[in-house]
Amino acid sequence: MQFNTDIPKINFAMTYLTRVAQDWFEVGLNQEDQGILQDWLSNWNLFVDGLRRHFGLLDPVGEAANMLDNLHMKPGDKISIYNMDFMHYASQLGWGNSVLCHRYYQGLPNRIQDSISTQEQGKSTSFQDMYALAMTIDHRYWERDHERHRARQAEKEALKSHSQKQGKASTSGSVMAFQSKANPSPVASSTKNPSSKPSLFPAPKKQPNTPWVDLSSKLANNGKLISDERKKRLENNLCLYCGAGDHKLDSCPKKQATISLKGCGASATADTLAAASEKPSEK
């Protein structure tokens, strides 16, 4: 921005003042209304001199030297940040090459100092050479740091992928085992589960060589033997249950079959006695 005179230049600069500096110059402006004129209101050099005298450093060179003496590169920073601060303070000083080189080296972190000290030619006494070497070492350090970071990320991804595969395999095995338990095969159920409940109506054991006998003419309506038939069986020493002569009532196989049927809820009627004998199939 171009200014023809110092007055608009001073007015423009005053718009950037804040806090105490702004208050101080506003007092000068108020005095102008009372007839007290300040020279710095119309003279740029006086205005700048007033700023430095009232608000600037008393000893800017000493302050820059103190800041440079206490400047150290932070371990997590890149060297560009350190270089910017170092050159800012060094530009205000008249230090020689060897002094700047020594001070620059002192402010570097151990990781860079170690690499500089192990150089075959030893530490340089030239500030420019020291400056360039430190930048090269720092760039290589961060390049290697990025390589390690990528390697760690790849290792984590590989481990994560392996864990996911292991988890899927474990889940699949668990599901198959659950399905196998929930839906066992018929053979496995019959052989591996002997404690399963029996049928509510088990079939009676088949008695071999037991011919079917029509009992309708020998039983009364109440299902018992008629008197003549009972008397005949007693006189001929026959089984009172089935009329056979090769066994007694206590060992009658048909009676045992009837008892089995009664255990399933059948009654000892004529139908029950008939069912106790195996009726041949009719063709």
Key features?
283 residues, mainly alpha, 3 domains, disordered C terminus
Dominant shape = elongated
Strand content: under 5%
Helices and strands, in N-to-C order?
HHHHHHHHHHHH
Supply the helix-strand structural class. Answer: mainly alpha
Uncertain stretches of 5 or more adjacent residues:
265-283
The level of helicity is 55-70%
According to DSSP, the number of beta strands is 0
* Rounded mean pLDDT score: 76
Quick one: biggest sheet?
Answer: none
Number of helices: 12
Q: In the residues, how many domains can be counted?
A: 3
Write down the Rg: 59 Å
Q: What's the end-to-end separation, in Å? A: 128 Å
Layout of SSEs?
Layout: H1 6-14, H2 19-33, H3 44-55, H4 60-69, H5 79-90, H6 97-106, H7 110-117, H8 127-182, H9 186-192, H10 227-235, H11 253-263, H12 270-276
Helix pairs in contact: 4-5, 6-8, 7-8, 11-12
Describe this entry's structure for a reader.
By secondary structure, the chain is mainly α. The chain folds into 3 domains: 51 residues, no CATH class; 88 residues, no CATH class; 77 residues, no CATH class. Helix content is 59%, strand content 0%. The protein has 12 helices and no strands. Helix 4 packs antiparallel against helix 5 and helix 6 packs parallel to helix 8. The longest helix has 56 residues.
